[in-house]
Amino acid sequence: MSLETSMPTCLRVQWFVWLPSFVLLLCGAGSVCAAGDLAFAVARLPLSLPVYVAEAKGYFDAEKLQVKTVDCEIGRQCLDLLLDGKTQLATTADAPIVISSLRGARFAILATIATTRNNKIVTRRGRGITSIADLADRRVGTFVGTSAHYFLELNLLSSGIDPARVVVLPIQPADAAKAFASEAVDAVVVFEPFALNVVRALGAQAQVVPSRRLPADTWNVVVADALSGQRELELQGLCRALDRAMLFIASEPAQAREILRRRLGLDDAALEWVWKDTHYALELRQSLVTGLEGQTRWALRSGHATGTKPNYLEYIRMGPLSAVRPGAVSIVR
Amino acid sequence: MRLRTQFAMLVTLAVAVGVGALSTLVWSVREARTAAHEQELAVTVAREVTGLLVLTQDYLLHGEPRAQQQWLARYRILSEAIATQATARSGAEREGAPGEEIEALSVLFAELKSLPEPGRDTPLLARQRELLVDSLLTEAQTISEHAYTREREFTRRRNAAETRLMTLAVLLPAVLALLFALGGWLLARRVLRPLAQLSSSMDAVASGQLSGRTGSTARDELGELSRRFDSMTAQLEERSASLRSSEAMLRLVTDNLPAMIGYWDSELRNRFANADYVRWFGKTPQEIHGRTIGELLGPELYEKNRPFINAALAGKRQDFSRSIPGPDGVLRHSQASYIPDVHLGRVDGFFVLVTDVTDRVKAEQALAQSLAEKETLLKEVYHRIKNNLQVVQSLLNIQSRSVQDANARTALQDMAQRVRSMALVHEQLYRAPDLSAIPLKKYVEDLVRQIATGSARALDEIRVEVQAPPQLDLGMDAAIPLGLLLTELLSNSFKHGFPEGRQGRIVVRFDPEPDGVRVCVSDDGVGLPPGFDPETAHSMGLQLASSLATQLGGRLHFESGPGTTVWLVASRL
Description:
The structure holds two protein chains of two kinds.
Chain A: H1 9-29, E1 37-43, H2 49-56, H3 59-62, E2 66-72, H4 75-83, E3 89-93, H5 94-102, E4 107-116, E5 119-124, E6 139-142, H6 147-158, E7 167-170, H7 176-181, E8 187-191, H8 194-202, E9 206-209, E10 217-224, H9 232-251, H10 253-264, H11 268-275, E11 278-283, H12 286-302, H13 319-324
Parallel strand pairs in A: 1-2, 1-3, 6-7, 6-8
Antiparallel strand pairs in A: 3-10, 4-10, 4-11, 5-8, 5-9
Helix pairs in contact in A: 2-9, 2-10, 5-12, 9-10
Chain B: H1 3-62, H2 65-88, H3 91-95, H4 99-114, H5 123-206, H6 221-256, E1 260-265, E2 270-273, H7 275-281, H8 285-288, H9 293-313, E3 318-325, E4 331-343, E5 346-356, H10 358-402, H11 406-431, E6 437-439, H12 440-454, E7 462-467, E8 473-475, H13 476-497, E9 504-513, E10 516-523, H14 540-551, E11 557-560, E12 564-570
Parallel strand pairs in B: 7-9
Antiparallel strand pairs in B: 1-2, 1-5, 3-4, 4-5, 6-8, 9-10, 10-12, 11-12
Helix pairs in contact in B: 1-2, 1-5, 4-5, 5-6, 10-11, 11-12, 11-13, 12-13, 13-14
């Protein structure tokens, strides 16, 4: 059967018209004809497991994506890499998104890949800190401008403590344990796996202060503004690869944990410690917007950032995930 | 492949399809019901969360106790719905359940209520209130989104289950129809067609065409059956030919036997009749076959033969003669036998064997007539010989009385006695029933009586006793020599054994022995004279006696004292 006879009449007459257009459309999407590397800044945190699984299991390759992961320590650094144009993709939490958006940076959230309540308030025994209220007038170290900082202030407020009464000292993730050794802080508020590092460093002296339940932090994949409206098919492929990774984590948790253990060099106890606080899901939920707006108000009010509250709907790119898993998107625009 | 295997596979396949379809049906219905229930719960959760959000706003704006009351009521409904969801979930799903969120809602609302009324907020209170509201909204959204996700998941599952049910509804009849069609095709091609072919061949065989064959090469049971049928038909054809040949031979034999041969079944219908049988009754074979014996014999002859027929049907062989007119009207004589045909104690019929003995009867009648004539003639001959011998005896007696010489006279008297004994034989033969033999004992008794009479001695002086088996008869060849021998021996005994009026006893005894009959004449008289030697004695009487003994196949033995005993074993007696 010839090509002409196998097509509907309208298509058969005009195939020489629509076929080049279709080819051009595909090339414009960047998936078929102009496939290039996708640099992906991935924080070396357990929250990034879906990316590691997709890479380890070859799901990116299966989608014909040339993804190159770039390690970074925390989400804020990853987002900085993206904003510096060094990567097209990055993993990051809500707080860096809020801070960066208030500074006018342009990027888009592609999907949430995990939610977590893994911020911990750690102190040394004997400092008289057994509850949130005991933090008043104390020195508390944290990663300023991150979800850990936001977590500290919300806990203070919910306990009726004016955050201004707490001396917040900025620390770097690698220095959390050292801050206790130098007697610079009375407590630290950090997320995993740094909290575990502090606990292990303090040993028997470590004490995790009970915190109240707060809205979970989200762990997101953001895409550079340079890709705005482009490479839609590649981003869909990325979502499919991450979706397959989610299914793998749900169905083969032991293997997923093994991937995480090898990638981050975590031991079994550390894995067990961080695993229980994290929920992996590929989604774009309305709570993301709510959470971002809440943190935005916090950032503006506390002076961590200045500017106009952004409309976060403009920072969310729903198309690729909607195309791959429509039910995972509950945000309307 | 064998039919049994094929049908077993088909049935197994049908059962497997049925079980699979049933399992899928049950599973899909259960899945659809579960999904519908979960959808309902998810919708309830979403509705109640929305209600909570509205009531939270209502309470924040107006602080109405009614809003607080309704918030708590909706929260209770929401908690119950989520608890119900949690109980139905698998382990993995329970981990993602919004249990903590629902608990957090309650705590957050309680804390919100504990804050002073809005309007008099310090900056810290305002931020606290905002934090609580944000947290409450976020938790509520999480619950709502979870409900949404769950509703979508169970919608997907329900759709999948319904799709399975629809697929099953379409595929199952199609597969069953295919299986039925396959079964029907199998039945028609592998069963009905060979059966029709077999039936056709059977019809052909039933109609006598034994050359018909199915020619099946199938390797299943029906093929095997068809080949067995072909083999059986071939054997039947061969045996039928052999049977026809045997039947023809039987017919040839029976038709050429000089006898009427027939067979009548238990209902007295003819099943076989040979050519003579048919010819006797002047019928064709077709006219006789199947007719009753009564129709064939006619009422009169049937009545005569009925006792024999009934006896034959009762299992008893019947032999009888019958003289009846033949088809030409001439009286014919026949010898009939009714022989029962008994199988396992039951009489199925009887064979008839009728021999036309007309010629034999006529010959017998002629022979009987001739025999009667010869008997009459023989009697006449015996009678005349006897009379002539009596005449000779009378002449000898007359002559003896005229002779002066005592020796001559004695010789004549002895001769007369001998002639008399011969006449006595003929007299006995004349009176004998078969004219060829006479009873020995009676003959000897009569002879003794004559000799005693001739010897002028009263039998009360010399008693003579004859001892002989009553069944012993004498032929004519032996009767005359024996009579003459006894005449000699008895005459001597009367004459010399009892001199001077001596009384005594003479015994004539006949004893059958293996080599003949022992004849012994003994008396208790004076015995043989001293020095008597039968070998050297020259009397005519002894010479004659010795010669007669030889004729009878024996030799005389003389024994003396007391009395005299003479005996021989007559081998020709």
